[in-house]
């Protein structure tokens, strides 16, 4: 009996490109997965591929939504943290930090940041207070701050941050389409206010050494936020960007393969 040949899964090549800069020679062979075809977030999240990646060959040209990493390449390589200050064990942490340790492992897959900060619990508590009083308080809607925070972490390439920030942003109301379009401020899914917040985050990111609030950006912001709210956004982004520098410099978090900071 003649058997029909077993169908093969088409393989595409993805070139990683972010913000117009080639991310080195990083290319991945990925397999088409029809089950994820209509779910861009599942595909991007599983493959750990930036939302502006480019499929250069195959029928899915230009569509990351058709890409799923093959089993031999389950995720992009990440740089694991290796801090010079030794992490404490969970049992050595104060009780309130043990809860943070557990959440970090459950959501982000790594607790190095929490475990190292166990040496300075009062400093860690201060950082938590920033989130309680300014990030989740203040007059700017939390969804706007979650949007800005997620844009920062994708720009910086903090894998530890991205895992949790993506979930928090969606819990605050961002849609899957918006999460997928985080690298594209011009996407139709963004409101004018959201577009202005994304642009502000980009100007305040670590990689933007010449970042500035231009007259055009200021005008866009003032159409949707008053002076107090704009300053609240600015200080929030300043703290988050400064913390990102600390996390990278002290090697406390997993970094995406495209991350330009730290080791």
Outline the secondary-structure elements.
Elements: E1 11-18, E2 21-32, H1 40-47, E3 54-55, E4 67-69, H2 95-108, H3 112-117, H4 121-135, H5 142-156, H6 159-171, H7 176-180, H8 192-203, H9 215-222, H10 227-249
Antiparallel strand pairs: 1-2, 1-3, 2-4
Walk me through this protein's architecture.
With 263 residues, this protein is of the alpha+beta class. Helix content is 45%, strand content 10%. The chain is built from ten helices and four strands; from the N terminus they run E-E-H-E-E-H-H-H-H-H-H-H-H-H. A hairpin with a 2-residue loop joins strand 1 and strand 2 (21-32). Helix 5 (142-156) crosses helix 8 (192-203). The N and C termini lie far apart (59 Å).
Low-confidence stretches: 1-75
Q: What is the count of structural domains?
A: 2
Tell me the CATH topology of the largest domain: AhpD-like
Using only C-alpha atoms, the radius of gyration works out to: 20 Å
Please, what is the average pLDDT?
A: 78
The CATH architecture term of the largest domain is Up-down Bundle
Find the count of extended strands (DSSP E, 2+ residues): 4
Distance between the termini: 59 Å
CATH first level of the largest domain: which class? Mainly Alpha
What does the overall shape look like? globular
The fraction of residues assigned to DSSP E strands is: 5-15%
Biggest sheet, strands in spatial order?
3-1-2-4
Report the CATH superfamily of the largest domain: AhpD-like
Largest sheet: 4 strands, antiparallel
List key phrases describing it.
263 residues; alpha+beta; AhpD-like; 2 domains; four-stranded antiparallel β-sheet; 4 strands
